């Protein structure tokens, strides 16, 4: 007995000492008292020091509210949040809800100050007698302080400190509660509390809770609904009706009983409310969170990745993620629901999720870089026939697959390099079915590169012979473009590709594409997003724009937040782009590899692409309004030939850019362009068509050394083709050149010498002509023209 009496005296003494120190320190306001048991031994000096060390003002974090990602038309793509919350004013909360929460949590809220002294002392003495915390005495103001401190915590250690059952923490809360009561009215505190509190099942704040549980608003809550919500805040998980309906009802009825006891409601109101079901499960509203729940999960995740890269939202990735999910920002994107629907419809029509191959397509707007659509055959998820990989984007983004080799779609950049260098559109090269490029050296930006010890590439189409650039593009003639890329050099091709946003999609640092002999036939790994945007540059007459998905970001208050906007530059001249458009437009005409994909009245241009062993096939094409790139590929290591794999549920007996990837492009673009104005490409100017060339000196019949000297003195580079050809010229002398003398060549370009074996045969300087394609219209019959060399004809040897 003596021990207990001594303990009781210690409690009383401690309380008296604490209250005295509190008053002296100015911390006591309207009945401030210690709310916790076991204060005996907590000295006056220590208490006073703790109080003096505390700040006078509670600094709260902004309310965590959900952010939204929107499509271009304002429709919702996704919600992003840590806490589902919709802040409201007190006037927007039904008074019955306010009365219910006060009745059950702090019935003297409007009568006392920072805390209820009576309730606190009662709880303290009970807890002291039991030797542990058995009863709480926190006021609504104190609860608001505690919730605010937890909300502000960013690390597990901070959360632990904000919830620790220690006197230091309780004293701090009291001091903060005093500050809050001085700064805000009771109604303001109650409003803040009702917006901050956790109401269970992911609902934070009374408005989100009303919407979630009852499909209503806080302003329209009924008495039983308000009582149920008021009962939740004490134990949001334990009293959650979606977890335990009976326990939720018991708690709700307890609140109703307390409201009747306090004469807030009548006995009849209480009895009627008790008979009401806790909730109607059919009215429970879930608020989908995150990109996984979006209709456009891959596009959404790529947008989020761009947000996380923006330092405007925080110093670290963790800070940025927290900000994005709590700041209530509105992110508007370039996604066009009509274009996206067309892309997805094409994927759905041409593929199946169960296919062993994968398909993807991206659609971009030329002149802006706005990414309008992104679709793929494998849906988002972790189950069978689902994937978390986005096959449209680069690997440096966490979900990006990192692209595929792009095959002959690279020829477009070779065409651009040739036109830029001054080659005419009817530039001819003898292009046999197979050429020997064994150990042949090509110039690069840093010197030269050499082909394999054995490299004899062939054409995959019938076109061969004396072809023009347009002939070769229409038939995608490999041997032509391998020779053209030698004449231009690989550096101009690589530079143009780089300016148009092409880089190694597997690289974390946007490494440039490799400059290798076979570059024009496909190199490195590129993505549909990358390729469609590069081709969009041609459509925009050489204006390159960085791919743009985020068009605006506004704060929770509606103020714009600075983010990277549309960024464009003139990457290549309009005349070069016009020339590329003319050449690739012919690919879409009858007889071209893309001829069967042509549709509608607008001008279209495009290029097929197939990589070695048919592991991936492409079609990239555009009008002046939209550009798209589609790919069908094997995305499972080790990569296999597409032939024999399934597409649209059927085994493929063939795989090509035009016949496999092309139909996906065609269907998507047909739907996307529907309703848009008819557009036409600008015609290339006369100099682009004819080329910026000068006459080649006659070297037929000269020794290789003399011919080399003559051409070098005239300003050309020279290389000698391996082996010898049939010619009427003497054996060991020059039979003819490529380019031909009659066609001329750009100043400084590469001229190849073909050496005669002396066996007679074809006319010198005129390789045999056997084009397999129809000659496109409106090309001049006259040889290339240049103001410096006005003679129209040239000719001779």
UniProtKB/TrEMBL annotation:
The keyword Metal-binding does not apply. SMART domains: PASTA (SM00740). Keywords: Carboxypeptidase, Glycosyltransferase, Hydrolase, Multifunctional enzyme, Protease, Transferase. Residues 691-757 form the PASTA domain. It catalyses: [GlcNAc-(1->4)-Mur2Ac(oyl-L-Ala-gamma-D-Glu-L-Lys-D-Ala-D-Ala)](n)-di-trans,octa-cis-undecaprenyl diphosphate + beta-D-GlcNAc-(1->4)-Mur2Ac(oyl-L-Ala-gamma-D-Glu-L-Lys-D-Ala-D-Ala)-di-trans,octa-cis-undecaprenyl diphosphate = [GlcNAc-(1->4)-Mur2Ac(oyl-L-Ala-gamma-D-Glu-L-Lys-D-Ala-D-Ala)](n+1)-di-trans,octa-cis-undecaprenyl diphosphate + di-trans,octa-cis-undecaprenyl diphosphate + H(+); Preferential cleavage: (Ac)2-L-Lys-D-Ala-|-D-Ala. Also transpeptidation of peptidyl-alanyl moieties that are N-acyl substituents of D-alanine. Pfam families: PASTA, Transgly, Transpeptidase. The keyword Ribonucleoprotein does not apply. Residues 777-787 have a biased composition (Pro residues). Gene3D superfamilies: 3.30.10.20, Biosynthetic peptidoglycan transglycosylase-like (1.10.3810.10), DD-peptidase/beta-lactamase superfamily (3.40.710.10). Residues 724-797 are annotated as: Disordered. Signal peptide: none annotated. PANTHER family: BINDING PROTEIN TRANSPEPTIDASE, PUTATIVE-RELATED (PTHR32282), PEPTIDOGLYCAN GLYCOSYLTRANSFERASE (PTHR32282:SF33). This is Transglycosylase domain-containing protein. It comes from Kribbella alba.
């Amino acid at each position: 007995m003596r021990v207990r009496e001594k303990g009781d005296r210690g409690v009383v003494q401690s309380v008296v000492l604490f209250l005295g120190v509190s008053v002296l320190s100015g911390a006591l306001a309207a009945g401030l008292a210690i709310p916790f048991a076991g204060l005996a031994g907590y000295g006056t000096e220590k208490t006073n020091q703790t109080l003096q060390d505390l700040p006078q003002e509670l600094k709260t974090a902004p309310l965590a509210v959900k952010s939204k990602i929107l499509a271009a038309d304002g429709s919702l793509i996704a919600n992003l949040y840590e806490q589902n919350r919709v802040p409201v004013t007190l006037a927007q909360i039904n008074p019955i809800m306010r009365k219910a929460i006060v009745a059950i949590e702090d019935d003297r809220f409007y009568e006392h100050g920072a805390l209820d002294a009576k309730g606190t002392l009662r709880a303290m003495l009970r807890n002291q007698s039991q030797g542990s915390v058995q009863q709480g005495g926190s006021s609504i103001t104190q609860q608001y302080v505690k919730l605010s401190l937890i909300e502000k915590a960013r690390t597990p250690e901070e959360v632990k400190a904000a919830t620790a059952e220690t006197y230091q923490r309780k004293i701090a809360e009291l001091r903060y509660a005093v500050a809050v009561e001085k700064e805000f009215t009771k109604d303001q505190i109650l409003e803040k509390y009702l917006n901050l509190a956790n109401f269970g099942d992911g609902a934070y704040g009374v408005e989100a809770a009303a919407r979630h549980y009852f499909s209503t608003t806080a302003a329209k809550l009924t008495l039983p609904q308000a009582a149920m919500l008021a009962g939740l805040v004490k134990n949001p998980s334990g009293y959650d009706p979606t977890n335990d309906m009976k326990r939720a009802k018991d708690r709700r009825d307890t609140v109703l009983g307390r409201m009747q006891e306090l004469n807030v409601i009548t006995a009849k109101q209480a009895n009627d409310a008790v008979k009401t079901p806790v909730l109607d499960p059919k009215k429970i509203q879930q608020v989908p969170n995150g990109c996984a729940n979006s209709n456009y999960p891959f596009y959404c995740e790529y947008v989020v990745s761009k947000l996380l890269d923006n330092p405007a939202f925080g110093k670290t990735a963790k800070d940025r993620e927290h900000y994005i999910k709590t700041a209530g920002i509105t992110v508007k994107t370039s996604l066009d629901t009509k274009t996206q629907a067309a892309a997805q419809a094409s994927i759905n029509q041409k593929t199946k999720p169960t296919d062993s191959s994968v398909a993807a397509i991206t659609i971009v707007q030329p002149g802006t870089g706005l990414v309008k659509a992104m679709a793929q055959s494998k849906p988002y998820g972790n189950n069978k026939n689902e994937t978390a990989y986005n096959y449209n984007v680069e690997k440096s983004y966490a979900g990006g697959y990192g692209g595929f080799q792009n095959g002959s779609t690279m020829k477009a950049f070779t065409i651009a390099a040739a036109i830029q260098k001054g080659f005419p559109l009817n530039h001819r090269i003898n292009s046999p079915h197979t050429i020997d490029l064994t150990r042949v050296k090509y110039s690069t930006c840093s010197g030269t590169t050499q082909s394999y010890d054995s490299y004899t590439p062939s054409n995959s189409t019938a076109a061969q012979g004396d072809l023009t650039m347009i002939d070769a593009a229409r038939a995608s003639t490999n041997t032509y473009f391998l020779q053209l890329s030698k004449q231009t050099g690989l550096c101009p091709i690589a530079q143009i590709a780089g300016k148009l946003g092409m880089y190694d999609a597997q690289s974390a640092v946007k490494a440039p594409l490799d400059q290798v002999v076979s570059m024009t036939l496909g190199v490195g790994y590129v993505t549909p997003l990358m390729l469609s945007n590069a081709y969009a540059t041609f459509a925009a007459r050489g204006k390159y724009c960085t791919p743009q998905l985020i068009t605006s970001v506004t704060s929770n208050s509606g103020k714009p937040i600075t983010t990277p906007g549309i960024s464009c530059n003139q990457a290549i001249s309009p005349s070069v782009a016009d020339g590329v458009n003319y050449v690739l437009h012919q690919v879409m005409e009858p007889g071209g590899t893309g001829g069967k994909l042509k549709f509608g009245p607008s001008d279209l241009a495009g290029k097929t692409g197939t990589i070695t062993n048919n592991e991936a096939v492409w079609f990239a094409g555009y009008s002046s309004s939209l550009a798209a790139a589609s790919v069908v590929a094997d995305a499972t290591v080790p990569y296999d030939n597409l032939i024999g794999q399934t597409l649209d549920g059927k085994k493929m007996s063939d795989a090509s850019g035009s016949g496999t990837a092309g139909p996906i492009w065609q269907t998507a673009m047909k739907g996307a362009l529907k309703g848009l104005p008819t557009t036409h490409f600008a015609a290339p100017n006369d100099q682009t068509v004819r080329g910026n060339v000068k006459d080649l000196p006659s070297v037929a019949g000269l020794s290789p050394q003399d011919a080399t000297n003559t051409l070098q003195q005239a300003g050309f580079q020279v290389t000698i083709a391996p082996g010898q050809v049939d010619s009427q010229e003497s054996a060991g002398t020059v039979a003819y050149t490529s380019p031909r003398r009659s066609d001329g060549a750009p100043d400084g370009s590469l001229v190849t010498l073909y050496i005669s074996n002396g066996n007679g045969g074809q006319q010198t300087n005129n390789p045999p002509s056997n084009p397999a394609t129809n000659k496109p219209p409106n090309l001049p019959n006259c040889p290339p023209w240049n103001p410096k060399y006005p003679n129209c004809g040239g000719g001779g040897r």
